[in-house]
Amino acid sequence: MSYCIITRDDIKSKSITKELKSKIKAKYDEENPKCVIAVGGDGTLLRAFHLYPNSIIFGLHTGHLGFYSNYFVSDIDTIAKAINEDSYNIEEIDLIEVDFIDGYGNHYHDKALNEVTIVGPTRTLRIDVYIGNNFFEHFRGTGFCISTPTGSTAYNKSLNGSVVDPSLKCIQLTEIAAINSNAYRTISSPMVLGIDKIIELKSDDTHNTNAFVTVDDKPYSLDTFREMKVYTSKSKLKMAYHNRQDFLSRISRTFLNDNK
Ligand code: NAP
User: Do 176 and 142 meet the contact criterion of CB atoms below 8 Å apart?
Assistant: First the structure.
């Protein structure tokens, strides 16, 4: 059994990390840990996932949000015991994958826990949207956010996308500042699609310059954007838990009531 800890850069999280290290007897291994403890918030958990996508993640929440976290500061001993004894429950969380190509024909691939976005912060993007191999719409605007069910409460929610119960198997496509005119007409509401649906965004347009693709907290800066394909991944994130809060309690704890 081996483990490592990813810590948010604040005094409380650092002090909890020190305490965890003093209580865990398993081997500390930053190369290939079986378990990773993310001490902080959802941003810390995203970093832990991208560094160690195949490890089992314990999310210990020390901030005000912590939608993903299954453990609180009062659970330090529970986590230490779980790792020392290699004993915990695992829930699997859906991920999405993205393949995209820039204007020079360079190919990229990544996996997201929350969402993938394509944005043109300076010039509007002109994109043809295909869903499941069928043409869907001509888009012109700032971009798109494509999110997982657990990512629906992140950027997607700020874009007025739907909050999705993670027990539903789906992928969500949300517009970012679409221009609607006679030339470009979009659905103008979030599309919640089945997980068998592949979303393709295509363009040959030289207008799509200085675009950014983001994969959770990772930015890819592109001179020009040509094509993107997003689909539900066959692999899952493995999250450890003891007492799992249900979805509505998480929503309430994170967005409606302080410190619940
Ligand atoms: P950040 O900009 O420092 O933090 C973004 C905020 O989103 C943090 O408060 C974070 O919670 C929260 N968050 C992350 N995942 C969440 C989830 N699944 N449900 C509810 N809240 C969630 O960036 P970061 O910490 O590196 O995280 C990257 C994420 O920021 C991206 O995946 C994207 O979803 C989000 N983002 C949001 C907007 C927006 O809402 N306008 C814009 C850009 C990016 P903690 O405080 O617990 O870390």
Answer: yes
pLDDT tens, residue by residue, 193-226: 999 999 999 998 777 888 999 999 999 999 999 9
Domains of the chain, with CATH numbers? 2-88+242-256 (3.40.50.10330), 95-234 (2.60.200.30)
- For residue 171, CA distances in Å to 9, 36, 149, 211 come to 32, 27, 7, 23
Q: Which of 48, 113, 250 has its CA nearest to residue 58?
A: 48
Nearest alpha-carbon partner for 220 in 119, 94, 114, 141: 119
Determine the pLDDT at residue 250.
Answer: 87
pLDDT above 60 for 181: yes
- Is it the case that residue 65 has pLDDT exceeding 70? no
* Pocket flag, ligand 1, residue 154 (CB < 6 Å): yes
Ligand 1 atom nearest 44 alpha carbon: 48
Beta-ladder partners of 176: 143
Position 260 confidence tier, pLDDT thresholds 50, 70, 90: very low
Token pair recorded at residue 190: 């979030």
Angstrom distance (rounded) from CA 159 to CA 162 = 9
Ligand 1 mean position to 208 CA, how many Å? Answer: 26
